[in-house]
Write a structure and sequence with these properties.
Length: 382
C-alpha cells in the first residue's frame, strides 16, 4: 500500500466523504506500508509494519527500504546537495573578490504585500546571501503601496553602487503592473533575468542575455552537473510561464535539444511527453504527470512545488480501507508535492528531482551566482 496514490494525489481528499465527521475507523492491517516522511522524498522511505499480533496492541516499527527496492528506482537528482556545492564555490569567489579589489557583491530584494510563501522565499534569499558573504538590502512594502513607490526604490537601487543585483519578489499585488516594474530594473542588475531585453536576448541566436532566470538556469545546471546529455535529445517543457516554462524551453534550445512545449491547450499531452528524453515540468498541478506519461529512461526535472493538505490528528496514521486518512507528522498541515507523480515516475525514468529538495534550492543558488557575476562584470573582475 502506498501513500502516494496520484489518482487523487491526496488519500485524505478521496476519503473524506466516507463515514461521518469525527468517526474514525482503524482497520487491522498486517503488512508493509510505504510512507514518505513529510517534507521528504522516497530516498528516505520508511517501511512501517503495523502488526495485529498481539491483538490488543498496535506496534509500529520503522526500517529503511530494502536495497533491492532502492536499486530498482531512478537516480535522485539532489538539488539541495548541488545547491550547497554551488554556495561553497560562491563563498570562495566572494572572498577572493573582496581580498583582491575590496568589493562585496550586494543584492537588493523587494517584497510587496503579505504573502507568507513570498516572505519565506525572501527570508531564505537573505539567509543564503549571508551564508556566502553577499550583502543584502531588503525593502518591504505593504500590499496597498503605490506602484510609483516601488519604482522609486528600484530607481534608487539602479543608481546605488553597493547594489549589483535587484529583484522584486513575484507575484506582485493585483493592482500593480508587473511589466512596468520589471522594465524598471536596470538590465545590468536584473539578476532575476526577467527584463524583456534579457529574455529577448535569450531567445535570439548569437545574442547573450546579461542574466538567465534563476529557476530554469537551475534546471539546466542540474542536468549539467549530473552529466546528462542535452544536445540532440528530445525535450518537453510542460508549462509556458514567463518565469519558468518559456525561458526553460529557450535554454534547452540553446543547448541544442529539440524542444516541444506542452501547455493547457495542448491536445494529447501524454503522447507528447511520452516521446521526451528530458521532461521539465512547471505547471503547478500536483501529481499531474503520471508514470504512464513518461518514456522509460527519461530524465525528469520537476519544478512544481504544490502544497497538499494533510489532516492532523494526535495519532500518526489512521487507516481506512487501505488508505491513510491523516498524517500527523506534518506540522505545517500540508506537504509539498511536485507536478510529477514521484512514486510512479521513479519506477519508469532513469533520474528525477524530488520535491522538495530538487529545483527549489537551485533557484536561490542561481540567484547568488547571478549576483556574483553581476558584481564581477560591473567591476571588471575575472
Ligand atoms: N522575483 C522572483 N519571484 C519568484 C521566483 C523568482 O525566481 N524570482 N520564483 C518563485 C519563488 N522562489 C523564489 O523566489 C522559490 C521557490 C521555492 C524555493 C525552494 O527552495 N523551495 C523548497 C521548498 C520550500 C518549502 O519548504 O516551502 C524546495 O523546493 O525544496 C526557493 C525559491 C516565485 N517567485
Amino acid at each position: 500500500m502506498n501513500l502516494a496514490d496520484c489518482s487523487s494525489h491526496s488519500a485524505t481528499a478521496r476519503l473524506l466523504h466516507f463515514g461521518s465527521p469525527g468517526a474514525i475507523y482503524l482497520r487491522r492491517f498486517v503488512g508493509s506500508l510505504h510512507v514518505g516522511r513529510c517534507g521528504s522524498n522516497p530516498t528516505h522511505v520508511k517501511t512501517l509494519r503495523l502488526r495485529s499480533n498481539p491483538p490488543k496492541t498496535l506496534t509500529v516499527t520503522a526500517a529503511m527500504a530494502s536495497e533491492a527496492e532502492v536499486a530498482a528506482s531512478a537516480k535522485i537528482i539532489d538539488g539541495k546537495m548541488v545547491a550547497k556545492e554551488i554556495r561553497d564555490e560562491i563563498t570562495t569567489e566572494v572572498s577572493r573578490m573582496k581580498d583582491a579589489i575590496g568589493v562585496v557583491p550586494g543584492l537588493a530584494v523587494m517584497l510587496i504585500g503579505e504573502r507568507k510563501d513570498s516572505a519565506t522565499y525572501v527570508r531564505n534569499k537573505k539567509k543564503a546571501c549571508e551564508s556566502v558573504g553577499i550583502n543584502s538590502f531588503e525593502v518591504r512594502l505593504p500590499e496597498d503601496s503605490a506602484e510609483t513607490e516601488v519604482l522609486k526604490f528600484i530607481s534608487d537601487f539602479n543608481d546605488d553602487p553597493a547594489v549589483h543585483g535587484i529583484l522584486v519578489q513575484l507575484p506582485l499585488p493585483k493592482h500593480m503592473n508587473e511589466q512596468n516594474i520589471l522594465n524598471a530594473v536596470s538590465i545590468e542588475k536584473d539578476v532575476d533575468g526577467f527584463h524583456p531585453l534579457n529574455i529577448g536576448r535569450l531567445a535570439m541566436r548569437g545574442r547573450e542575455p546579461s542574466f538567465v532566470p534563476c529557476t530554469p538556469k537551475g534546471c539546466i545546471e542540474l542536468l549539467h552537473r549530473y552529466g546528462f546529455q542535452i544536445k540532440g535529445k528530445k525535450a518537453v517543457v510542460i508549462g509556458r510561464s514567463n518565469i519558468v516554462g518559456m525561458p526553460a524551453a529557450l535554454l534547452l534550445q540553446r543547448e541544442d535539444a529539440t524542444v516541444t512545449i506542452v501547455h493547457s491547450r495542448t491536445q494529447n499531452p501524454e503522447q507528447i511527453v511520452k516521446e521526451a528524453d528530458i521532461v521539465i515540468s512547471a505547471v503547478g498541478q500536483p501529481d499531474m504527470v503520471r508514470g504512464t506519461w513518461l518514456k522509460p529512461g527519461a530524465v525528469v526535472i520537476d519544478v512544481g512545488i504544490n502544497p497538499v493538505e494533510v489532516r492532523r490528528l494526535p495519532l500518526v496514521f489512521f487507516i481506512f480501507h487501505d488508505h491513510i486518512l491523516y498524517d500527523a507528522t506534518c506540522p505545517r498541515g500540508y506537504r509539498l508535492v511536485g507536478d510529477v507523480c514521484y512514486e510512479e515516475a521513479r519506477k519508469v525514468v532513469s533520474a528525477i528531482t524530488p520535491v522538495p529538495g530538487g529545483v527549489g534550492p537551485m533557484t536561490i543558488a542561481m540567484l547568488l551566482s547571478n549576483t556574483l557575476s553581476s558584481a564581477k562584470r560591473i567591476h571588471n573582475f575575472q
